[in-house]
Amino acid sequence: MSILPQQNSLLKSSHQYATKRYRIIRVIPIRVRCAAATPVKPNPGLTRIVVKPSSTKPTPAKPPTPKGPKPDDPELKSTWEHRAWLASGCTTLLVSLAKSIVASTDSHIWAEPILAGLVGYALADLGSGVYHWGIDNYGDATTPLFGGQIDAFQGHHKWPWTITKRQFANNLHALARVITFTVLPINLVLNDPTLLAFVGSFSGCIMFSQQFHAWSHSTKSKLPPIVVTLQDLGVLVSRFEHAAHHRAPYNGNYCIVSGIWNTILDQNKVFEALEMVLFFQLGFRPRSWSEPSLEWIEETSSLPQ
Ligand SMILES: [Zn+2]
Ligand SMILES: [Zn+2]
């Protein structure tokens, strides 16, 4: 194969270029440095900009400040005034029942008073539901006569556990006072054994409804076995049933004696109908319509350990 003069000169020049390039490559030292490991000399001509986080040390999260009463809060303790009102309430009930028994013995009538006592027990559950619905939904701490009860029941929705720490007379004294003022005059004028049995049973269940309510908030292990049995039989309001009252939509299971009226009232939307009537006739808006207002929601930050 012949090589043309042009081809020959081309080969020569490319050889010279390659030789020159080789020389250049040989004299230039090539270093490869690892930037991460090699210290970099500061260049005085350059300004280094360092972006620092707002705080170098992480601030430890503060525990939530407990609100509401504490388990040993003096507000949950009974005073001598509470005990005195409880004693007068219990005396009033005993007077009703004693007079009924004496009158039954004298007249040899037993069936009617016993039946009246059972009716009183059943209607007390209904009464507790209507009253509880009323003070849960209407008024506030400044409402005349009922302000204290309204405030207490609204506080109960925020801190339900406090009812289990409240001492016996502290929990019952308000209702005992009401029973004393209303039932004692009735006792003085009534002599009918059946009526006295009804009054004694009804007012007794109303007065102790707050204790039945407290038991419905306790755990099984902390309750006397007889109370657990009565709850399981449906004689007293059950823990399961009352727990539903403290869950959204907060508009049912108001009855706190036996709870037998809860299903009837809630399924037939009796309280909802009453709320509509009060709103459209009188403009009173029930608190349960504002759900999920903070007033209804349990504050768990203050739960006792
Ligand atoms: Zn309630
Ligand atoms: Zn409750």
Give your account of this protein's structure.
The protein has 305 residues and is mainly alpha-helical. It has one domain (74-302). The protein has helices at residues 5-27, 80-107, 111-137, 147-158, 162-165, 168-189, 193-217, 225-233, 239-245, 260-267, 270-282. Helix 3 packs across helix 7 (193-217) and helix 6 packs antiparallel against helix 7. The longest helix is centred in the N-terminal third of the chain and has 28 residues, at 80-107. The model is unreliable at 1-15, 17-42 and 44-55 (pLDDT under 50).
Note the beta-strand portion: under 5%
Largest sheet features: none
The average pLDDT score comes to: 82
How many discrete structural domains? 1
Q: Which structural class do you get from the secondary structure elements?
A: mainly alpha
Q: First CA to last CA: what distance?
A: 102 Å
Rg, please?
A: 41 Å
Helix content: 55-70%
How many H/I helical runs?
11
Unreliable spans are 1-15, 17-42, 44-55
Question: How would you sum up the global shape?
Answer: globular
Total number of strands: 0
Small molecules in complex: zinc ion
SSE string, helix = H, strand = E? Answer: HHHHHHHHHHH
